[in-house]
Q: What sequence folds into this?
């Protein structure tokens, strides 16, 4: 009978130890999942972009290191750092009317540009609400005479 008591005690010790280990590893898995929750498919849930806003012949303000959710558009980024008024045209996208109180007035309009290593500044190919920003990208809103575009080199 003493043998059954010894076996029972050992089984009880094993059960408690196994339960404690299960709780510990469950806690570790939960912590790891929380750390990884900021990543999706190996990529960060957020991207960082550099955004400049400038007026021809005036000041330029840079919002370097602006952090936005992956999948955000240029209009989303701009709205995060500035007061933006725009009109959405069905089938075409958003046309920015003003940024920080500076409104379009012919021939001056808000135009957006993207910096490329291979070609310098390139004019935006689509409306700002249709352009999804990429991590590390440098973008620039420029209030300019639409017939000219002397843009500065990014910092």
A:
């Amino acid at each position: 009978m003493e043998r059954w008591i010894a076996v029972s005690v050992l089984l009880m010790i094993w059960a408690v130890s196994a339960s404690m280990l299960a709780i510990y590893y469950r806690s570790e898995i939960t912590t790891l999942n929380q750390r990884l929750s900021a990543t999706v498919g190996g990529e960060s849930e957020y991207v960082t972009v550099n955004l400049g806003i400038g007026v021809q012949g005036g000041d330029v303000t840079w919002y370097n290191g602006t952090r936005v959710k992956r999948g955000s558009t240029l209009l989303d980024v701009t709205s995060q750092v500035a007061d933006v008024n725009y009109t959405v045209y069905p089938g075409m996208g958003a046309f920015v009317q003003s940024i920080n109180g500076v409104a379009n007035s012919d021939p001056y309009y808000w135009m957006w540009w993207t910096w490329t290593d291979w070609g310098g500044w390139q004019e935006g190919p689509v409306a700002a609400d249709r352009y999804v920003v990429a991590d590390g990208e440098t973008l620039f809103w420029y209030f300019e005479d639409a017939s000219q575009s002397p843009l500065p080199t990014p910092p």
In short: The radius of gyration is 28 Å. The helical segments are 2-36, 74-81. The beta strands are 39-40, 43-44, 46-55, 60-69, 84-89, 93-99, 102-103, 108-116, 120-123, 138-145.
